[in-house]
Design a protein that fits this description.
The complex is a heterodimer.
Chain A: E1 4-7, E2 10-13, E3 19-25, E4 31-37, E5 43-51, E6 54-57, E7 64-66, E8 76-78, E9 87-94, E10 103-104, E11 108-112
Parallel strand pairs in A: 2-11
Antiparallel strand pairs in A: 1-3, 3-8, 4-5, 4-9, 5-6, 7-8, 9-10, 9-11
Chain B: E1 9-13, E2 18-23, E3 33-38, E4 45-50, E5 55-56, E6 61-64, E7 70-75, E8 84-89, E9 105-110
Parallel strand pairs in B: 1-9
Antiparallel strand pairs in B: 2-7, 3-4, 3-8, 5-6, 6-7, 8-9
The chains are: A mainly beta, B mainly beta.
């Protein structure tokens, strides 16, 4: 059963804490993306990776970090530097970069305690 | 990336065709038009995409005008499960692959 999985579905963060969101895909896609969605808003790009061991900042990378050590995995860490982390986080993947269909995971909702 | 304009909301009766318009007047010749939808609290779902010709798949049809400045997504027999926000996106030729999701059209399918 191919697709993109994200875990956990809900995540709670305490003040000053780093948390890591998981994203795994078994579609053999080269490109992976992280987006953030705030209530009633569209998606904004945080980071993207077009190949293993390489990634680039998106439009709102401050306070976030990523790694791409394996083709199928692209975890996102929300650091304590991100002052407003409460949002819905979506991971996506595509065969390659430009003008390719992106397939999204179910999302992780991050809440601050 | 070409900017797209969509109506904020639309209603459709269950069983009827839903026709969702999108304007993309600044689209260039090699840019595709993509449609995604997002059901509340879920990840966006790919629906269909096209370049010049009309396209159809098991979910929907996409009609692109000859000048490519606008398009219409057609859900032929809308069901209550089609209630969602529909996004028309022109990703552009940049190599980032970034998708710009605007406000989209909230489609409410009513019984």
């Amino acid at each position: 059963d191919g697709g993109i999985t994200q875990s956990p579905k809900y995540l709670f963060r305490k003040e000053g804490q780093n948390v890591t969101l998981s994203c795994e895909q078994n579609l053999n896609h080269d490109a992976m993306y992280w987006y953030r969605q705030d209530p009633g808003q569209g998606l904004r790009l945080i980071y993207y990776s077009q190949i293993v061991n390489d990634f680039q900042k998106g439009d709102i990378a401050e306070g976030y970090s990523v790694s791409r050590e394996k083709k199928e995995s692209f975890p996102l860490t929300v650091t304590s530097a991100q002052k407003n982390p409460t949002a819905f986080y979506l991971c996506a993947s595509s065969v390659s970069g430009a003008q390719e269909t992106q397939y999204f995971g179910p999302g992780t909702r991050l809440l601050v305690l | 990336d070409a900017k797209t304009t969509q109506p904020t909301s639309m209603d459709c009766a269950e069983g009827r065709a839903a026709n969702l318009p999108c304007n993309h007047s600044t689209i260039s010749g090699n840019e595709y038009v993509y449609w995604y939808r997002q059901i509340h609290s879920q990840g966006p779902q790919y629906i269909i995409h096209g370049l010049k010709n009309n396209e159809t798949n098991e979910m929907a049809s996409l009609i692109i005008t000859e000048d490519r400045k606008s398009s219409t997504l057609i859900l032929p027999h809308a069901t209550l499960r089609d209630t969602a926000v529909y996004y028309c996106i022109v990703p552009g030729s940049s190599n980032t692959g970034k998708l710009i999701f605007g406000q989209g059209t909230t489609l409410q399918v009513k019984p």
